[in-house]
Amino acid sequence: MSDDLDTNQPNSLEITLSTLREEGIQRLRNKLRRGQQDMADWRGGKLAVSAVPGAGKSTGMAIAAAIAIARYQLYSKRQLAVVTFTRSAAASIRGKIRKYLKDDLSLPQTGFLVYTLHGLALNIAGRHGDLSGLNLGTSTLVTPSPSHKIIRTCVEQWIVKNPRRYSILLEGNAFDGEETERLRRQSVLRTEVLPNLAYTVIHEAKSSGLLPEDLWRLSEQINDGYDILAIAAGLYEQYQIVTRSQNFIDYDDMILAALRVLENDTVRQQWQKQFFAVFEDEAQDSTPLQFHLLETLATDAENPNAPLNLIRVGDPNQAINSTFTPADPIYFNWFCEECGGAEAPTTNNEGDDAVAIKDEGAEAPTTNGDGVRRLATMDRAGRSTKSIIDAANFVLDWVNRTYGESVAFRRQFIRPVDSNDPQVDANPQPTGRGLEIYHPKDIYQTVELMGERVIELLTENPDRSAAVLVRENRQGTFIAQKLEFLKRQYGITVYDVGSSDRHSHIPGEIMALLQFLDRPHSPDYLKTALEVLVKRQLIPTQDLNALATYPEQFLYPGPLDPPQTPYVRQAAQYCRSLLKARIELPHYHLISFLALTLKYDQSELATVDKLGERVAKQTLGNMSMNSTISVLQEIVSSERFEPVETDEDADSRYLRKNQLTIITMHKAKGLDWDYVFLPFLHEDTIPGNPWVPTAAQFLGDFTLAEVARAQIRASLHKQPLPMAMEAWEQAAQLKTAEEFRLLYVAMTRGKRLLWMSAAERGPFRWNTFTGKESDNLQVKKPCPILPALKSRFPEAVVALSAVLH
Ligand SMILES: Nc1ncnc2c1ncn2[C@@H]1O[C@H](COP(=O)(O)OP(=O)(O)OP(=O)(O)O)[C@@H](O)[C@H]1O
């Protein structure tokens, strides 16, 4: 047989195609910087990629995915599972992979699936309902907060079943048996301490793959007076009973259900065969349970002992969920160590305050013995100007030197990109001093200074973006109120993400209107409905008390009643049209009708849809006005209602030009702006101190929830279980570490200017601050990082005399 006819030999068309494919791969690879290229060069097995902020994790992962699809020709065979944390990140990475496949590789846009972790779990659990034990059609997904009815119910049931443990808690410290004090303690335990304990431990244990019986076993290892872990185990047990009996599932149940499915050999192998490999982004944010799911899917079906086909990309220094989820950065650090060795490749080897970075560091091979690179560090980042990078590196180093092991960052320093880097305008020139540090006299002057700087910057460069990053929403509301004039006078939009995106107003507004429709003659309901209409600017502002006093007269004025002013007439007409709709529309259309009436925007309407579904589910078989209102009442009074992010990319709303976005540091993760303002950097919030609410101090100088969390975490981290006071200290360290990571995330959002300040005077607590000048301000200590930054970078300190006009 001649060579030409040998079907095993590639024919000339195949050779051409393969050459073209290889050229395409090389072109794409050349778009990457070092570190990113390690991902593109992946040829199977495990790879950990530890990246610094702005290193291009998502870009690198998208190109690496497109290359793997081309190289292994997955478009015609198996699929690559790309997993990330949020829906908007999933949408963005999906779009990028499609683009690279089409534009750079001329390939069909298939061969991969992008999931969020929960989406992936839901997919697996949903396809095998028989094995998962999850009936998605009949169950309700819940995200219980401490005040949620489910948590309250399990607390009540636990108390009934555990009178002895409960009375030990009641006695606490220094109890003299006095009745009023007993009642007070009872109320604190039932409504605060036990719900918080239940909420914390259930999530912590469940997301770590622990069952109530595991907590029971743990509780036997330690005796801390109250047997906190035994109480926790009992609460968790009740929670499982209550949720099962009512067909509720939580997010952890979804992951657990998927894992149950994968216990079946045949089904597991099917999934393992379907997935060629798993690429995970934001790996520092996964819980142990989530990681277990990915590990299972990345296993070779035929040879379970072969290395996993798994790339995990993350930045342990940007882990900012570890105090409210079990996603501790320690897990990703462990993965990195397992892949390539404990030491991060860059180092601070110079004098005390300088952060110097060895240039050859990142190139040092980090393998786990097989000669193949298994740990890559992406430490070049083009986002920020050099002075911002220096400040962020300094913070990392300073925290490590000041606080030691328990609070330490992973030692990886950010380095500017090479001069031939593909990123446009990488490491831009600074605006002003690049890093500017202010020390205003109070919070009012802080906002004034920010306002002036924003006017200067955005008037000069209206095509640039700016953001104020706050630690809590209340600070954002205060700033937004004070800077409202920017739009009017300078055309600069002030976008307060907290109030625009929270959407928590929606259930309350819909409920107010429904209550009015149900009982239009109630002055209270009428007034509340009118308030909503005024707030939505649907009727003119006026004295609503006057309208609501006599509802009948307001709604249906008779010939003998005094004539209504045009404003009143407009309001009355509006209310009558709502009442008419109530009669004409079927009940199940009312909520969406009201949403349209209130002129909600697209993303608010998506939230209303979700709310409508939720109400329909909970009122199934009894869909009356009363039942709808009572479901809404429950939502409004007791729980967080998660808004829906619409696909009209939420991120781009935060990044608009000529806009000052006010956003929390948490929500700013993954985003960047030309100018970033960090006001109110005070020691009591960053790093802050965990504190025991006065009402609960009768139990001791710690909170049960934090102690239980630290004990569970110690066991997961293979450490001895700490006693209560030691556990409390560990909780404090966990918080300190997380607050500094949060500050680091916030600082690294800035491209050209990072503006930082701590006012001399500020409110005692932001959550009780009304923003009125009459509120007393107190002397505040700055976050300890500020004096350190000032002495290291004296040129960044801006004297007030230089800027006050
Ligand atoms: N190889 C590259 N060529 C050109 N631009 C790049 C490259 N890699 C990243 N970028 C750009 O750098 C910026 C930061 O990238 P990306 O958002 O992927 O970083 P990140 O590591 O996910 O950031 P963070 O850790 O702060 O969330 C983006 O604007 C991206 O387009």
From TrEMBL:
Organism: Limnofasciculus baicalensis BBK-W-15
Catalytic activity entry: ATP + H2O = ADP + phosphate + H(+); Couples ATP hydrolysis with the unwinding of duplex DNA by translocating in the 3'-5' direction
Sequence similarity: Belongs to the helicase family. UvrD subfamily.
Identification of the protein by name: DNA 3'-5' helicase
Entries under Gene3D superfamilies matching the protein: 1.10.10.160, P-loop containing nucleotide triphosphate hydrolases, PCRA, domain 4
Alphabetized UniProt keyword annotations: ATP-binding, DNA-binding, Helicase, Hydrolase, Isomerase, Nucleotide-binding
CC annotations in GO: cytosol; DNA helicase complex
Residue span(s) of domain UvrD-like helicase C-terminal: 404-670
Keyword Cytoplasm: no
